[in-house]
Amino acid sequence: MGHVVYIATSLDGYIADRDGGLDWLHSVPNPEGDDLGFAEFIAGVDALVMGRNTYQTLLDFDLELPAQWPYPKPVYVVSRQPVTVPAALEGKVFALAADDPRGLSDRLAELGHQRLYVDGGRTIQGFLAAELIDELILTQIPILLGGGVPLFGALAEPQAFELVHSEVLLGALVKSHYRRRR
């Protein structure tokens, strides 16, 4: 199916600081507003799957909706709790009851979504534990947070990945693309 993670991490592997904050993501100046390859990436996926916390963080950015909504593809928010979708995002964002990652993947495949962009700490960890992630695109920000929300969690078995490509962006970020070896 080709599920993929596309995310930034600190050098010590965190995706948010101890308070859940993301300000550190902007610690490297980007005066030209380069999207760092995101538009090309997003064009290659069918839909996004994210957890409620990640979704809520996006809504907390106080974006002008729907104009500033960053995703041109359907977004499926998985949660054990009710998820509110603002009227401006109806038809773009869909709430789903939390399901095991394999069941969720199968349900979305039935809707024609074969290549999923998986985002959010717990959601990524669940898809990895279910061995459903085929690619990791990680951009390391040169900062040590010393704690926070980790990208990776425990796995039953090691998972091997091979480096497809690596590049330096903005003279400071290292973006590496890995593919799962099966």
Protein described:
β3, α2 (52-60) and β4 (75-79) form a beta-alpha-beta unit. The radius of gyration is 16 Å and the shape is globular. It has one domain (3-26, 34-180): Dihydrofolate Reductase, subunit A (3-Layer(aba) Sandwich). The protein has helices at residues 38-43, 52-60, 101-110, 121-129; strands spanning 3-10, 14-16, 47-51, 75-79, 93-97, 116-119, 133-141, 149-150, 161-169, 173-180. The chain starts with a strand and ends with a strand. Helix content is 19%, strand content 32%. The strands form two sheets. The protein has an eight-stranded mixed beta sheet with strand order 5-4-3-6-1-7-10-9. Strands 2-8 form a two-stranded antiparallel sheet. It has 182 residues and is of the alpha/beta class. It has four helices and ten strands.
Q: Could you give the topology of this structure?
A:
Blueprint: E1 3-10, E2 14-16, H1 38-43, E3 47-51, H2 52-60, E4 75-79, E5 93-97, H3 101-110, E6 116-119, H4 121-129, E7 133-141, E8 149-150, E9 161-169, E10 173-180
Q: What tags apply to this protein structure?
A:
alpha/beta, 19% helix, Dihydrofolate Reductase, subunit A, single chain, two-stranded antiparallel ribbon, 182 residues, eight-stranded mixed beta sheet, 10 strands, 4 helices
User: What is the CA-based Rg, rounded?
Assistant: 16 Å
Uncertain runs are none
Strand order of the largest sheet: 5-4-3-6-1-7-10-9
What is the total tally of β strands?
A: 10
List the total number of helices. 4
Q: How would you sum up the global shape?
A: globular
Percentage of residues in helical conformation: 10-25%
CATH superfamily: Dihydrofolate Reductase, subunit A
One letter per element, helices H and strands E, the order comes to: EEHEHEEHEHEEEE
The appropriate CATH architecture is 3-Layer(aba) Sandwich
CATH class: Alpha Beta
How much of the residues is beta strand, in percent? 25-35%
Mean pLDDT: 95
Structural class by helix and strand composition: alpha/beta
Largest sheet: 8 strands, mixed
Instruction: Tell me the CATH topology.
Output: Dihydrofolate Reductase, subunit A
Quickly count the domains.
Answer: 1
Quote the distance from N terminus to C terminus: 13 Å
